[in-house]
Amino acid sequence: MAQAHYDVLIIGGGTAGIMTAAQLHRKARKLRIAILDPARDHWYQPAWTLVAAGAFRMQDTRRDEAAVVPDGVDLVREAASRFEPEANTVHTANGRAYTYDHLVVCPGIKLDIDAMPGLREALATDRVCSNYIDPEKTRRVMKGFQGGVALFTQPATPIKCGGAPQKAAYLADEFFRRRRLRDRTKLVFATPGSVIFGVQPFRTALEEVVRTKGILFKPFLSPVRIDPVRQEVHFRWCKPGEDHGPAVDAQELPQRVEGGDTIVMHYDMLHLAPPQSAPDVVRHSPLAYADGPNKGWLEVDIHTLQHKRYPNVFGLGDVAALPTAKTGAAVRKQAPVVVANILQRIKDGALSKMQYDGYSSCPLVTGYGRMLLAEFKYDNVRDSDPLLTRFFDTGKPLWSMWLLKKYVLPWLYWNRMLKGTM
């Protein structure tokens, strides 16, 4: 039964919340810990790319939320509605209030579908899909595709698993080849970024994948609007220092330039990552950055994960304003830092010596049976696991890495990560 006060109150029961709770409980069983989250389902979303490709079952990515909460930790099935950090209080949508000694904020990320005009209407059609929303629909859309322009894109906002949109394109390429459609398909990957991936040597390896597969790579294109009736995406040309769009070749792709810096591209199939933001409860709270490039995201020190203005508040996961990729792998390195700092503060009011160096990883599936494991830290510095790299060149697409993605990582997630043992 929920109490009114907790030693540690955790907002969010996703990967970050469960891992933090499990590690805290293992190290300090006398602490009164609660997770505040109304969710009934807990999803292993890293496998959704494989679900869309028909290489993983959707039902195997789900567990009951209550089943993954550690024994001894309260699950409070309510949604946080307002933070009052000066009073160490969280208010809920049910009209209740909970107080805390330490607060951990990790409610994940919001898929902000209505931030892009036309996206909601487009998703209601049978030509537009997103692995972020419904990977089973992606598979249906790919099965119904009969050739033409298959367009894959992503927004200019931060997104979880930044490599997921290109993974969808790589697997679609092979899916269409198996269905003998690739020779009548123009497969396009359009991104607001300047390169396919920001870290070497993974960038070079992925550029070779794009070249070999014949994917049309279109950088500096930020999607701003979708016209589902005409089956068109409007992109803003966003190359720094240039206020006009590129010259377009209408023979290469059915596209046109409007207004100088708008490129309009036709699609017969569209897959995209929707715009994303911090959940409203954080975005409109005193815990978020009030302005600047991180406006709306949780304000924490990038190494200690402690809030910059409220010392008994910590944050991690997708909601935190950290200059690294938003992935479960990042959470695996962040949770021990949060746990160590909270326990040290309880002991003597100080912080531990543990710090987060920005580690994240993107298991980039490049086709059925091939994956490269891109591991990196702050400043786009490669940070590959020294043990793995003794036996495998993780910077190249390998069968062994595919086995890691499909079998090993899901098992580790359910049986080790969520149990607080890694």
Please give a structural write-up.
The model has no long low-confidence stretch (mean pLDDT 96). The radius of gyration is 22 Å and the shape is globular. The chain has 422 residues and is an alpha/beta fold. It is 27% helix and 25% strand. The chain has helices spanning 15-27, 48-52, 65-68, 119-123, 135-144, 164-178, 202-213, 280-283, 328-348, 386-391, 399-417; strands spanning 5-11, 33-36, 41-43, 62-64, 74-76, 80-84, 89-92, 97-105, 110-111, 128-129, 148-153, 185-190, 216-218, 221-227, 232-237, 255-258, 262-266, 269-272, 276-277, 313-315, 360-367, 370-377, 381-382. The longest helix is centred in the last third of the chain and has 21 residues, at 328-348. It is built from eleven helices and 23 strands. It folds into three domains: 5-109 and 278-360 and 406-417, FAD/NAD(P)-binding domain; 113-272, 3-Layer(bba) Sandwich (FAD/NAD(P)-binding domain), CATH 3.50.50.60; 362-401, no CATH class.
Instruction: Report Rg.
Output: 22 Å
Residues in helices, as a percent range: 25-40%
Please state the overall shape, judged from the principal axes of the Cα atoms: globular
State which percent range the strand residues make up.
Answer: 25-35%
User: Tally the helices: what do you get?
Assistant: 11
Unreliably modeled segments: none
Number of strands: 23
Taking the alpha carbons of the first and last residues, their distance comes to 29 Å
CATH topology of the largest domain: FAD/NAD(P)-binding domain
The count of domains is 3
CATH architecture title of the largest domain: 3-Layer(bba) Sandwich
Assign the CATH superfamily of the largest domain.
Answer: FAD/NAD(P)-binding domain
- Structural class determined from secondary elements: alpha/beta
CATH class membership of the largest domain: Alpha Beta
How many strands, what sense, and barrel or not for the largest sheet? 7 strands, mixed
pLDDT average, as an integer? 96
